[in-house]
Amino acid sequence: MEQLIISGRRRLQGSIAVSGAKNAALAVIPAALCAGAPCVIDNLPVIDDVFNYVDILRRLGAGCDFLDRNTLRIDPSSAAPIPADFDSARKIRASYYVLGALLGRFGEAAVTLPGGCNFGSRPIDLHIKGFEALGAEVRIEHGIVYARADRLVGAHVYLNASVGATINVMLAAINAEGVTVIENAAREPHVVDVANFLNFIGADIKGAGTDTIRISGKEPLRGGDYTIIPDMIETGTYMIAGAVTGGDVTVSNIIPKHMESLTSKLKEMDCGIEEGEDAIRVMARGQLSPASIKTQVYPGFPTDLQPQMTALLATINGASSMTETVFDNRFQYIGELERLGAKITLEGRTALIDGGVALTGAEVTATDLRGGIALIIAGLSAYGETRLNNVHYVDRGYEDFEDKLRYLGADITRRETAVFEIPAGIL
Ligand code: UD1
After folding, report:
1. 91, 98, 163: residue to mutate for ligand 1 pocket, most atoms within 8 A of CB
2. Of 382, 369, 300, 388, which is closest to residue 341 (Cα–Cα)?
3. Is 34 a catalytic residue?
4. Are both 2-12+287-416 and 22-218 of the same fold?
5. 124 alpha carbon to ligand 1 midpoint, in Å?
6. In the chain, at which end, N or C, are there fewer CB atoms within 10 A of the end residue's CB?
7. What residue's CA is closest to ligand 1, atom 12?
8. Is the overall model pTM greater than 0.85, yes or no?
9. Domain ranges in the chain?
10. Is 334 within 8 Å of 351 (Cβ atoms)?
11. Neighbour count for residue 276 (Cβ, 10 Å)
């Protein structure tokens, strides 16, 4: 077992560069299964979820070689549609993209029901609806989703702005005959990144980034070199970490446009923000103001920054609220935040935050990836020492997290803890 130990109340200062986007990487890697020749994917974040995906592709027979820490060469030529019922597929939610990619390329695919963070029911009915609209038969047996089709034919599909379903249907539709139109498509930057990658290797996808995506299928696909976009959630996390410590933090190698919902909220809260071409500086001098925030699909406030922002609001004097509209149960971390002294009342999908109570360090346990990060953010502002368990959640999604925080001046270390601690004096 490992623990992160944070000694709080250090003001963060300085500049760090953001890594490649986790959620784009986890879609572009399986998308490379559809390519007609090897692909080299650059700017991949060094995180457990990427390593799990590489393991899935290797088990499916694809060649995967890291050319350096962040660059992966994928040779899809030897891949086969064998059922992806591996531990690595169970660990990550994005393993569902194997379905769209293999169904399109081979006319059959099978993958274990996805894992990943548990914030309430996370059905895949929209993915299935999309595949069925293209002519596939889909069934779920013993926790495995099977999809097959003699031929896929383009269709109109309505997808309720689901990120996963939009990408999955795009992956299948590039190999469908005729035109597929996805209505109410997700508009997140990682959806656009996957479409850009697929277009780069020869697909014909128009409209990604709007709510209507049009895919002309059966274009011949080649290989190519592609660079993943920067991670907007990692960016937002360091911006919030800067703000919670009253710091002065510049986050670089980013796309500021992706951050508009957060920057406008922080400005509204009287936090100083300076935007550059590929960087944002957060200057949190003086008291910040409380805020009311509601998560929304892009370009609204991202649900993946909801826990981190709630932790920040807990440190600000006054009454704030956070309403979660994307997932039905994404507040599990709040009980842990309360161990640090946060005063939060849950009313349905809204957290009412009575902010400004001085937080004090305690032993806390991450309940999911972003929830774990929220506890670290709270720990950065807390008096004394915060000890975080379940560090593996953090390792799923953030490259060099402790190093980057330490570089900014945080006091954070990782240590092994004995599973059974023998009380002193017994031996
Ligand atoms: C992706 C991201 C996750 C992010 C989320 C929302 C990845 C690997 N994960 O997750 O980090 O929090 O987008 O931005 O990219 N839904 C259905 N049926 C479906 C699919 C989704 O009802 O078939 C519902 C979900 O339960 C949820 C909502 O739609 O309430 C949004 O889910 P979706 O956008 O699909 O998120 P994910 O792709 O799971």
Report:
1. 163
2. 382
3. no
4. yes
5. 9
6. C
7. 304
8. yes
9. 2-12+287-416, 22-218
10. yes
11. 11
What Å distances lie between residue 257 and 163, 203, 217, 276, 297, CA to CA?
19, 26, 30, 10, 15
Q: Note the CATH number of domain 22-218.
A: 3.65.10.10
Q: Is 304 in the pocket of ligand 1 (CB under 6 A)?
A: yes
Exactly one of 34, 64, 117, 271 is catalytic; name it. 117
Asked whether 327 lines ligand 1 (CB < 6 A), one says yes
Please report, in tens digits, the pLDDT of each residue of the chain (427 residues total): 899 999 999 999 999 999 999 999 999 999 999 999 999 999 999 999 999 999 999 999 999 999 999 999 999 999 999 999 999 999 999 999 999 999 999 999 999 987 655 655 678 999 999 999 999 999 999 989 999 999 999 999 999 999 999 999 999 999 999 999 999 999 999 999 999 999 999 999 999 999 999 999 999 999 999 999 999 999 999 999 999 999 999 999 999 999 999 999 999 999 999 999 999 999 998 899 999 999 999 999 999 999 999 999 999 999 999 999 999 889 999 999 999 999 999 999 999 999 999 999 999 999 999 999 999 999 999 999 999 999 999 999 999 999 999 999 999 999 998 654 444 443 4
Distance CA 209, CA 320 (A): 31
Q: Which amino acid is at 164?
A: G
Closest CA relative to residue 197, chosen from 421, 10, 28, 401: 28
State the distance from the centre of ligand 1 to the C-alpha of 246, rounded, in angstroms.
33
CATH number for the domain whose boundaries are 2-12+287-416: 3.65.10.10
Query: Quick check: CB of 193 below 6 Å from ligand 1?
Result: no
